[in-house]
Amino acid sequence: MLAINRKVLTLDEFTIQQLRDFPNATGELSTLLRDIGLAAKRVNVEVNKAGLVDILGDAGSINVQGEDVKKLDVFANNQFTGVLKHGISCAGIASEEFDDHIPFDDAISQNSKYICLFDPLDGSSNIDVNISIGTIFSVYRRVSEKGEKVVINDFLQPGIKQVAAGYIIYGSSTMLVYATRRGVNGFTLDPSIGEFCLSHPNIKCPEFGKIYSVNHGNFFRYTKPVQKYIDTCQKKDENNGGPYSQRYIGSMVADLHRNLLKGGIFMYPGTTDKPGGKLRLLYECNPFAFIVEVAGGKAIDGIRRILDIQPSSLHQRTPFFAGSKGMIGELEDFLTAK
Ligand code: AHM
Ligand code: MG
To answer: For position 315, which CATH number holds?
Structure first.
């Protein structure tokens, strides 16, 4: 007979266990996370065979950001949208791939208290070269009345209001990592049973690391303080933990996942041509800022805490610096120096 390892907790078991501490909890968040896990498994299957089937390449359309949409982006967007629409815990969504938010208009959805924002497949330029990509998601409690259609203000909440945030990394193994105020936990997909199993309980981001992640090709387009900080990363002597290693995949889920576990700093600063940065506040930066902060790290736009920014539009961008608290502190010394 097969021995069953009862030490392994699945994502569902874990979220249900967490509920026991909250006698008044309705279980809606657990259901929502299960739905996200289900969509992730479906996307994972397609990502894994991306090299085999004719699913690679551009879908031939351009998204609201003016970028090429890859076929897998479309697939992932459809999966997450479909699963949340047909689930019972989400009143509406906003996706990096849609111009506007989408209210779900059936009675069950309208009576749900949560809304979800996601980037269905981040790092999509890496799909056709077999590099890790990811899904990023963010969950908020709606501010509009239950029973009615969700409205734009439900989605334009500062990141500090997130109830949960997470990502799925489709990498050498597929992992789902999510944070609530209680902690950050990581689950690795066991493909033999098709379940996400708790593999990284209570993730903490080390206060310092040895990795800095930034697109060096843009170096001369960064502001002087950012350039000086990068110089320091390279010039730090061994007595001060240096020099830091530069690691940049160009897939923020993979870059931030590594830095979260090992310690490090991830930067996507504004540039002379794009002072507002590239990354999207709602779909990419807020969820990671929440995860990193719950894990003990820090996330800023150069001046402010990311989670305090009041968004004014769904697709707004922001400069982004996130990671180990001590390293963000070092960066801030340069950004605030007179
Ligand atoms: P995407 O949403 O179009 O995939 O772009 C976001 C990605 C991030 O994953 C990554 O950190 C960044 O773009 C890389 O940009 P660059 O190639 O300019 O360094
Ligand atoms: Mg993206």
So the answer is: 3.40.190.80
Nearest-angstrom CA–CA distance, 113 and 150: 10
Task: Kindly report, residue by residue over 3-62, the tens digit of the pLDDT.
Answer: 555 678 999 999 988 877 776 778 899 999 999 999 999 999 988 876 665 555 556 666
* End-to-end C-alpha distance for the chain, whole angstroms: 70
270 CA to middle of ligand 1, Å? 13
Side chain identity at residue 275, one-letter code: P
Q: Alpha carbon of 249 to those of 11, 123, 131, 280: distances in Å? A: 28, 9, 8, 18
The first and second tokens of residue 80, run together, are 């997450």
Token pair for 234: 């390279």
Structure confidence by residue, pLDDT tens digits, 242-274: 789 999 999 999 999 999 999 999 999 999 999
Q: Give the ligand whose atoms come closest to the C-alpha of residue 118.
A: 2
195 and 274: one domain?
Answer: no
What CATH number is given to the structural domain containing 176? 3.30.540.10
Q: If you write DSSP's letter for every residue of 144-183 in order, what string do you get?
A: SPTTS---HHHH---GGGEEEEEEEEESSSEEEEEEETTE
pTM above the 0.90 mark? yes
Residues 62 and 154 both lie in one domain: yes
Q: Where are the alpha helices (DSSP H) in 25-156?
A: 28-48, 71-86, 107-110, 152-155
Peptide bond into 243 cis (omega under 30): yes
Q: Are residues 309 and 225 in the same domain?
A: yes
| Distance between Cα 259 and ligand 1 center (Å) | 16
% pLDDT > 70, the chain? 91
State whether the beta carbon of 215 lies less than 6 angstroms from ligand 1: yes
